[in-house]
Design goal:
By secondary structure, the chain is an alpha/beta fold. About 35% of the residues lie in helices and about 15% in strands.
């Protein structure tokens, strides 16, 4: 018997897998990779290896971006449409069930762990809206929820599942010890859409119709500026961001370099303003720039203006 698992690589997911594996179910993991949780993928791969389960990576596209821009159930405290996002993931899990011949799928959700998307009423609403009523097994809180089809059909023994609720991690740690789980992942940074600064940048980007996945990925990098013409400038803060911005350049963009930082001007223009901002961060009067994949660097005259940072910075 097979089951699909919506897998994050966190402790909740790991415990849920082991509880189901103990009932002689072959578990197939699926990780939904979005522009807003890219840093968790390595954790998921590592945990899948530990549990000896296959892991399918599903890359989101325009349909997911559309969901973010116009969620049916609205946003949380920031730009996080948690309910719509989870419904999207349920549908992807249901599709994978059909692909491999699984009758149900598993999640690591815990009743009451997250107020917006993990209370009992919303959990049941989401699976109904996703067209998978009775297909979603939540091993950690199963005894607090109506029996799923897998339980009713005696594929899963409900008595061997749990009744965990709330935000305390103590029951999880005790269960991990009981199950012999010695991989205890540290909590991840979470979805960027719950971050206030990222959410502010996203709102501003939407206002300027910058909604392509490329723009979404840039939102978590560097310092952001909206210049007088409406163009976006991103300035690096670290060596890693410097490398990432350098990789983002397209033929329409302009890359600036001064000292140990770079600036990326999306779709060109505003050379004077962009140069002055980049120069201000390294206290230099010279900045080099080039367009797209051009080989040579040009050096414009720079007039450093200390008011530019506060005037044009998005956050």
């Amino acid at each position: 018997m097979r089951a699909v698992l919506l897998f994050s690589g966190g402790l909740d997911s790991i415990l849920s897998v082991r509880l189901v594996q103990l009932q002689n179910i072959n578990v197939y993991g699926v990780y939904i990779l979005t522009p807003f949780n890219p840093h968790s993928i390595e954790r998921a791969k590592s945990a899948a290896d530990y549990l000896k389960i296959p892991l399918k990576i599903i890359h989101t596209g325009d349909d997911y971006i559309d969901l973010i821009l116009s969620p049916r159930y609205g946003y949380g405290k920031n730009m996080n449409p948690c309910i719509d996002c989870k419904i999207f993931m349920y549908r992807k899990a249901r599709e994978y069930c059909k692909e491999i011949g699984a009758d149900f799928f598993i999640t690591g959700e815990v009743v009451g762990e997250r107020p917006m998307s993990q209370n009992k009423a919303v959990l049941l609403l989401m699976e109904k809206d996703a067209g998978c009523k009775g297909m979603v097994l939540r091993p950690l809180s199963a005894k607090l929820l109506p029996p799923t089809k897998a339980e009713e059909n005696k594929i899963i023994d409900r008595t061997r599942l749990c009744n965990i609720s709330g935000r305390s991690r103590k029951p999880h740690m005790e269960l991990a010890d009981l199950l012999g789980i010695d991989l205890i992942p540290t909590p991840a940074g979470g979805c960027l859409l719950t971050d206030p600064v990222f959410s502010m940048r996203l709102k501003e980007s939407i206002e300027h119709k910058e909604t392509l996945p490329r723009f979404m990925e840039l939102l978590s990098v560097g310092r952001h500026f909206r210049l007088l013409s409406g163009k976006k400038l991103v300035v690096s803060r670290t060596e890693k961001e410097k490398e990432k911005l350098s990789e983002f350049v397209t033929p329409e963009d302009t890359l600036f370099k001064a000292g140990n930082i770079v600036g990326l001007l999306i779709n060109g223009g505003d050379l004077e303003q962009a140069s002055a901002i980049v120069a201000r961060y390294v206290h230099m009067d010279k900045v080099h720039y080039k367009r797209g994949a051009e080989n040579g660097w040009l050096t414009p005259e720079v007039i450093v203006d200390n008011t530019l940072l506060s005037k044009y910075r998005i956050e």
